[in-house]
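Propose amino acids for all 279 sites.
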């Protein structure tokens, strides 16, 4: 049951992952990201999600350090970039990430994109399995993997991914992928849950928000949680970081959940994982 900002979901290896966290995509390294991380932790967030390609891991690490909160009380996620895929490359990239974050371990490490053209995600996964067995990562997973990528990875792996972080919002509900992840005990996590603000003016959502005396963003984030999807909205403003997390004192009805589901357009704001090959 998701009752507060510290509520967790249990991954298939027993690790507890917060249902709600702060994403820092497109947050500038330095004071901007340091402040965002410190504000989030100050207001009760336990989960911070970054990535090598965001180029702000050092700032995230500094924000954590300045927060004064014990490292073991936080859940830190980062991601392996496309150009670092491969067995040895993954091991090296992981150490770079640890150095920048100033931590001895990660709670979750993800392969950022499948990059089918490279065909190296299985090699990378073998390296991540090693890091996991060595105790350097508490949980390993993937990002932007579709069902067929997951099928291909799982058939040659010792460990099933614990998490799949994907684009998920009312215009891209990924119903079949969500069902697949639930069936395989893979925790789905939403990036860009607000579709970079594009869905906030939708009349269905604004009507539901009025009923609950909430913002449209809060309604969407609540919808994520009620679907059993971990969510990590981004903000660089303290009042918005507080507001985003104020989603634990109301519940959407089955009818409201269905109305939001019906907004699906299978429309991405980011790239299609089958086609994205940037390194």
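Proposal:
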């Amino acid at each position: 049951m998701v009752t507060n900002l510290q509520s967790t979901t249990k991954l298939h290896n027993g690790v507890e992952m917060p249902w709600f966290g702060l994403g820092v995509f497109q947050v500038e390294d330095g004071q901007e990201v340091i402040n965002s991380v410190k504000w989030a932790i100050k207001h009760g967030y336990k989960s911070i999600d970054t990535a090598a390609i965001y180029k702000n891991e050092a700032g995230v690490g500094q924000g954590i350090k300045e927060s004064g909160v014990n490292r073991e009380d936080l859940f830190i996620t980062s991601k392996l970039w496309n150009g670092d895929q491969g067995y040895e490359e993954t091991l090296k990239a992981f150490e770079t990430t640890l150095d920048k974050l100033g931590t001895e371990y990660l709670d979750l490490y993800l392969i950022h994109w499948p990059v089918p053209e490279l065909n190296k995600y299985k090699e990378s996964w073998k390296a991540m399995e090693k890091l996991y067995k060595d105790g350097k990562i508490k949980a390993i997973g993937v990002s932007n993997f579709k069902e067929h990528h997951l099928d291909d990875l799982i058939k040659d792996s010792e460990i099933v991914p614990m998490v799949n972080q994907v684009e998920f919002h009312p215009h891209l509900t990924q119903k079949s992928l969500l069902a697949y992840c639930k069936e395989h005990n893979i925790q789905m996590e939403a990036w860009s849950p607000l579709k970079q603000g594009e869905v906030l003016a939708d009349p269905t959502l604004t009507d539901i928000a009025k009923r609950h005396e909430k913002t449209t963003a809060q309604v969407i984030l609540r919808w994520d949680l009620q679907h059993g999807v971990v969510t990590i909205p981004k903000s660089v403003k303290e009042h918005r970081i507080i507001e985003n997390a104020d989603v634990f004192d109301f519940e959407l009805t089955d009818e409201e959940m269905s109305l939001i589901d019906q907004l699906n357009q299978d429309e991405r704001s980011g790239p299609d994982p089958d086609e994205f090959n940037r390194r």
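The longest strand covers residues 137-143. The radius of gyration is 18 Å.
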